[in-house]
From TrEMBL, chains A, B, C, D:
Organism: Streptomyces griseorubiginosus
Lineage, opening ranks: Bacteria, Bacillati, Actinomycetota, Actinomycetes, Kitasatosporales
SUPFAM superfamilies cross-referenced by the UniProt entry: Homeodomain-like
Any one Pfam family match given in the protein's UniProt record, by short name: TetR_N
Protein name according to UniProt: TetR family transcriptional regulator
DNA-binding region: 37-56
GO MF term set: DNA binding
Length: 198, 198, 198, 198
DNA sequence: TATGAATGAGCCTTCATTCAT
DNA sequence: TATGAATGAAGGCTCATTCAT
């Protein structure tokens, strides 16, 4: 009986859940959450829609599961950051590590970036906002002047955006990431120094 | 007769098209494009769905019309920018003017920002990309080093993002805009100066 | 003021009704009745849908008016036929005249032929059926054997079908009509003679 | 369990697809393709519209599937005819067999006959035209004179039309079919003999 | 560990028609 | 002799979800 199962089916055994997550993320990132139907995901995997429901309770839960798996490092980073003194060095290190995290799950973060309107209405929306808030609290000094605060936020955001907006620029992926990181680090450094004009 | 028509209906006459655009933008920005149905728009206006189709050929066309009306200033800005020498002053002026344009149509740009995945598949997607490209060409020096280029792009992007990401920060709208503008101007200035590490 | 009216508008004066009929028949014949919308007709004429309603009460009435105008000759033919003795000569003459009538309003008859399902549900459906019945009564001898009756009906039908089904055959329109007429005449003649096998 | 399901639902299991085809053909033939809505079909079957879409991708595909199932015999006939010498006997046999095929799927062919305008725009339109062309090529001698060719085409067409146009005539279905077949056979025979006047 | 069959809600769109001007 | 604006009904289709097997 097992012998009649061909290689493809055999490989599939036991990791369908993972495969669903992979395909889903791929499609969500490419086409957006709403434009990606469960039918489409199922077809890509050569299973039925009902199979998806064996592994996940809803469409949203597929996304949530991917999100949870891939953003754990951010939680860890925040955890770590909270226990450090809020020195410039800490902030720079946060920026550095965050840059690495982002490039470790490009697809997900691209998805989050491009589907904000959708994500806002989903469970992960709130969660993500909280995490960003968590990062901010470490990186932004609430007593600094407005310009300094903006600079800090801009540092975080430059990292985020960098991944997608630089696609048209020349240069290999890694050196672009380095450049982005440098700009972000500069921003955070300037913000720490003083911020405004003086 | 005519007198039997109540105020509400009368006011409506002749500006339904405009009202559709307003409500649509409002809802698109709030809930996203896909999540906003024509039924919903129609209900907000107290007309039937079919009335929308008298004024616009498709759902997409409603968006396009809003987009065209509201982004004309960007076209003008690009036009202007192209005729200037690419000096630092020009770039700073571009940044300044772009900041003003953005804050003149917050809803639309928030929509564009938060619905990138959707927008990418629509007609306006390509258009918008082209315009951004147009701005970049003026502001980014292709011969500068990578870091300088990133800084320039980051300037543009900081403007974009600034409008939404700063909502949780203290301060009134206008002073926040000023702060964002300052950071962006700094970025463009540094980029022009040299860019990198020296 | 009349002087500002250009040639096109001027020509239009007073014959809009006729132009509606022409365009409508053209489109009905080409695309079918249901697939042709009033919007389409109006656009072809460069007027609004509402203008059509000034001239005709309903979509169906446009068709009815065309039908009535163009099938009057059939009524006349039936009238004439009823007053003749049901001799072979009469039948042959009916066939001959009917052939002429058909080729005088090809579009309408093509329409009738190709939209039977639709036409059946319209007012003209019943009317047309009656007229065909009228022709039959003259041409088909109810006392003849079944085969003879079929031959007679086939004669009529061959005329009908001939117009459309022969489009792929070689030869000019007129000589094809002659050929069809000859076959139909033969059929009616054989039917009259005896019909069956003997 | 299982016992709680009433007879009706139980019967339904596993043959819904077939039932859709049956009901659809019935309604298409009766009211025409466009006038028959999916809602109507669904209601006749006591299922939802969405159920139809589980079994067929589009409305058109329902028709196509019926068409394909029911016109396979024509393909076989053409196949057979092509391998025979184009003698009179072959032609007569084609006519005979075609007559049988037609009376084996009356509803479909009535539908095709009465919805030509619609069918022309559908996928089956082209297909059907090709098949008719296939039959013609066997039955019509391209070197014969025009009248002979018309006679041949008329033979085919008389068969087609015979099924519907004779409904008002007396006589049972089968003897009418025989009569029609005889007339068609005569036509094909005369066409083969010479055709014209001599 | 999946599938086959179906549902209910909703979507975008089109249509014939109306009516005040 | 027309138009501008709108309506109500319906149509085809897609989607996330369910459930018995």
């Amino acid at each position: 009986m097992g012998g009649t199962m061909d290689r493809t089916k055999q490989q599939r055994r036991g990791n369908t859940r993972q495969r669903i997550q992979d395909v889903a993320l791929e499609l969500f990132a490419e086409q957006g959450y709403e434009k990606t139907s469960l039918r489409e995901i199922a077809e890509h995997l050569d299973v039925t829609k009902a199979a998806l429901y064996y592994h996940f309770k809803t469409k949203e839960e597929i996304l949530v599961s991917v999100y949870d798996d891939l953003t754990q490092p951010i939680l860890d980073l925040i955890e770590w950051g909270r226990q450090q003194p809020h020195t410039l060095e800490t902030k720079q290190e946060i920026i550095r590590r965050y840059s690495e995290i982002l490039s470790g799950a490009t697809k997900l973060f691209r998805f989050m970036q491009e589907n904000q309107a959708t994500v806002r209405e989903l469970r992960i929306g709130e969660t993500f906002k909280e995490r960003m808030q968590g990062l901010r609290e470490i990186v932004v000094d609430p007593d600094a002047d407005l310009v300094a605060q903006v600079r800090s936020v801009s540092a975080l955001f430059t990292l985020h955006a960098g991944m997608f907006l630089l696609q048209d620029l020349d240069g290999d992926q890694e050196s672009k990431r380095k450049a982005v990181l440098e700009v972000a680090t500069d921003l955070i450094t300037q913000a720490h120094g003083g911020g405004g004009d003086e």
